[in-house]
Design brief:
Elements (H helix, E strand, L loop, with lengths): L3 H6 L3 H28 L16 H7 L2 H32 L6 H9 L6 H11 L6 H7 L16 H26 L3 H9 L4 H12 L1 H16 L3 H6 L11 H11 L3 H32 L1
Helix pairs in contact: 2-14, 3-14, 4-8, 4-11, 6-8, 8-11, 11-14, 13-14
């Protein structure tokens, strides 16, 4: 047994040596940077980091700030709506394309194209489209509906839904492709058997196909959730956080305090809370993907 261990240790030695730089980068940059950020979130650092610890003062101030609370509320609204609508729309589009329709490649390319754009470009495009002076509202009023109103980016009560429209337009294509790949992995004999048994297509999707696509749904949820937590570019391009602070999000709060407000301690505290949000998503996913398989 002892002689077998060194043999395993030196197996694929070239690949292990090649992986050393990446492992060191992960340890130093990611793990080290995370530990440094969390540590200095308990300090009173302003323009420059300084090791003057103040306990939980930064976190008490963070959760007592209306701007942070608004940003959390916006992220929750955007996140829940984005996750639900992305999955529903993406799956429906994938189910339609899975019917072997004509020009499928063209439709798939058109639907996926927005994902190739940056969030800045998407934000600017939808800022113009939702502008009441020359966007959708102006076009519809020009057709005769003078009382039509559609200006979500200028209404503090619904501005986050204006951002949501742009986010769905850009991200739904990717979700569609992931779902389509999952549907194409379903054994065709399942569909033949359901037709022979006279089972409606919608029941086949709900009770057979969707449960079989569980890994695809879990992976898709993780991708959507990671994009939700780091939402920043779209907000900056579309609204700049306005009107007022109505469309603030945590990532913008962190950036503003660290680089504009010159308050590193507060920015570090906010970024630590964002890190916890990411862990809440990643840990259950890792358990379902790896721990569940081991127990099974």
């Amino acid at each position: 047994m002892s002689a077998a261990r060194p043999v395993r240790l030196f197996r694929n030695i070239s690949a292990k040596i090649a992986a050393i730089p990446m492992i060191l980068t992960a340890l130093v940059v990611f793990v080290g940077g995370t530990a440094w950020t969390v540590t200095y979130s308990f300090t009173s650092s302003k323009l420059l980091p300084k090791a003057k610890f103040v306990g939980l003062d930064q976190y008490e101030r963070l959760w007592g700030t209306s701007r942070w609370l608004v940003s959390i509320e916006n992220l929750l609204i955007y996140g829940v709506c984005s996750m639900v609508l992305s999955l529903i729309i993406g799956f429906l589009l994938a189910a339609l394309l899975d019917q072997k329709i004509r020009y499928e490649n063209a439709f798939r390319t058109i639907l996926l194209y927005p994902f190739a754009l940056s969030f800045i470009v998407t934000g600017l495009v939808w800022q113009w489209l939702l502008n009441p002076d020359f966007g959708v509202q102006n076009v519809v009023r020009g057709l005769g509906w003078e009382s039509f109103t559609f200006d979500p980016l200028y209404n503090s009560d619904i501005v986050i839904f204006g951002v949501l429209i742009a986010g769905l337009w850009q991200g739904t294509g990717l979700i569609m492709c992931l779902m389509l790949a999952g549907l194409r992995g379903i054994d065709p004999d399942i569909w033949k058997a359901s037709r022979v048994d006279g089972i409606p297509a919608w029941k086949t999707y709900i009770f057979i196909v969707i449960p079989m696509m569980r890994p695809v749904f879990i992976t898709t949820l993780v991708i959507i959730a990671s994009g939700i937590v780091k939402l920043y570019d779209l907000i900056v391009a579309q609204t700049g956080g306005g009107p007022g602070i109505a469309s603030e999000v945590p990532a913008k709060y962190v950036y503003d305090y660290m680089f504009q407000g010159q308050n590193l301690g507060q920015g570090f505290a906010a970024s630590t809370m964002m890190l916890l949000a990411v862990l809440v998503v990643v840990i259950p996913w890792a358990y379902l993907e790896f721990g569940g398989k081991k127990h099974g």
